[in-house]
Amino acid sequence: MKKLLLSSIAFVFLLTSCGSKQKGELTGVQGKKWYPEKPYGMELIPRGSFIMGKSEEDQAKLLNAPTKTVTVRSFYMDDTEITNSEYRQFVEWVKDSIVRTKLAILADELGIGPEEGGIGDYAFKDADTTRASVYDKYMLDNYSGMGETGYEGRALSKDEELVWDTSDYPDEYYTEIMDSIYLSEDESYNGQRTIDVKKLKYKYSWMDIEAAARASIKGNGSRKDFIRTEEVEIYPDTTVWIRDFSYSYNEPMHNDYFWHDAYSEYPVVGISWQQAKAFCNWRTKFKNDDNKSRGRQFVNQFRLPTEAEWEYAARGGIEGGTYPWGGPYVISDTGCFMANFKPQRGDYAADAALYTVEAKSYEPNDFNMYNMAGNVSEWTNSSYDPSAYDYVSTMNPNGGDQSNTRKVIRGGSWKDVAYFLQVSTRDYEYADSARSYIGFRTVQDYMGEEDSTQ
Fold it and tell me: Which residues of 364-385 are buried (b: 16+ CB within 10 A; e: fewer)?
């Protein structure tokens, strides 16, 4: 018996040693090969240091931007503001997901599956048990009914296209769901069926890493205590074109600016800070869902730039420049305005634009960033504190106080005077506010060079 036991141990040892490619050496855990790629529509901003703040005279005497030498890490940044077309992609995705979720839930309540057609074509994927994976069956058996609605974690079926033409609705149940996402007849006019945009909500979770790190020093809290859940109405507030300007006729912008194809390449406005954050989360999810389907590793998150990152990118590598193009003047040597802003009292159109212009207008700076001055002001991730420069770190500085609802906006806009276009000028708006002159662009942390062989 002892000989048999020893033989078994020796046999196991031979299996483990002969099958190993490491030969007893410390070779590290071999993970998936990482193929970094440059995100579409973004430019690499190389790491570096710069003097952040008002190196020139602070004409407004705000005293909120004393000079400070700081260093930022490398990151990618959108070369333009997020456009109406790009934000509409987010809105369409949310609308599609909400409709499919409603259809799947009703199909589940009625016990209708794909084999019965109609609304059954939109049933949850795990409804067809012949095609469900072992994992799907396990989750359905063990976690069904958990969560706020009882349907969390169940995969939607996206095999069937949604039908929007009322004459082609497959059955009465489908009609019931589609009717629920439109405004009632007494709220519509001109015979148009209009989506109830208040129902277009994006729900997501994120982890407050900074709060968790501070709590861990004291040994307080568990991981779940720092997971935050947000639910945000994501449709732009188009009424900003009316509300921002009293005694001014701007109805055409209210009616057409966001949805009409004529404005597709213009920067999206009427977006609050919370909505911009929700867009960043969705963009990360959208990319990683695709990577998952291709068997590739996830990318790190898209996010809003910190105030320091924004200013560094706006300067374009030019030390001491007043504007993104460097010089102290807003008119070129050929007599052309360098940005879209309010150059003279009441004369918004002197720079060849009345409101916003297309996102790729005027000349980019040396980092190939368009409209870092003018067009629309841009949300940053940083909270506004007049004395922030006195205490923020010199390495990747960020005033990220979650309790402070005043958020830094940068760059000036089409309705601002030249002072606000300066790369070092600070301004703010409240996080829940939306304006006709505030948009945003996103960034992503740099994680390596692109593999040109892929």
Answer: bbebebbbbbbbbbbbbbbbbb
pLDDT of residue 36: 76
Pairing of strands 75-78, 68-72: unpaired
Q: Which residues are CB-contacts of 126 (< 8 A; sequence separation ≥ 6)? A: 132, 136, 137, 139, 140, 154, 155
The residue type at 229 = T
| Phi (first) and psi of residue 58, to 5 degrees | -85, 85
User: Which of 356, 343, 317, 358 shows the shortest CA–CA distance to 437?
Assistant: 356
The DSSP result for 40-101, as a single string, is TTEEEE--EEEEES--S--TT-------EEEEE--EEEESSPPBHHHHHHHHHHHHHHHHHH
Distance from the first to the final alpha carbon of the chain: 57
Instruction: Please tell me the distance from the alpha carbon of residue 270 to that of residue 235, in angstroms, as a whole number.
Output: 9
Q: Which helix (H) or strand (E) holds 227?
A: strand 227-233
Q: Let me know if 54 is exposed, middle or buried by CB neighbors in 10 A (0-12, 13-18, 19+).
A: buried
Distances in Å between the alpha carbon of 34 and those of 21, 106, 283, 447? 21, 42, 20, 10
Q: Per residue in 190-200, is it b (16+ CB within 10 Å) or e — as a string? A: eeeeeeebebb
* Non-local CB neighbours of 159 within 8 Å, separated by 6+ positions: 121
Task: Reduce the secondary structure of 374-425 to three states and give it as a string.
Answer: CCCEEEEEEECCCCHHHHCCCECCCCCCCCCCEEEEECCCCCCCHHHHCCCC
Q: Distance between CA atoms of 195 and 64, rounded to whole angstroms?
A: 44
* Beta-carbon count within 10 A of 431 CB: 18
Residue that is written with structure tokens 């809290």 in the block: 221
Going by DSSP bridges, is the β-strand pair 438-439/377-383 parallel, antiparallel, or unpaired? Answer: parallel
Asked if residues 357 and 266 have their Cβ atoms less than 8 Å apart, the reply is: yes
Closest CA to 270 of 44, 436, 449, 99: 436
Each domain of the chain, given as residue ranges in start order, spans: 43-83+240-454, 94-193
How far apart (Å, rounded) are the C-alpha atoms in residues 143 and 247? 57
Q: What is the pLDDT of residue 186?
A: 81
pLDDT along the chain (454 residues), means of 10: 50 50 82 80 96 76 81 97 98 96 95 92 80 63 60 85 94 95 83 89 91 76 86 97 95 96 98 98 96 89 97 94 92 91 85 94 96 98 92 89 91 95 96 98 86 42
Nearest to 314 by CA among 84, 82, 79: 79
Domain 43-83+240-454 has CATH 3.90.1580.10: yes
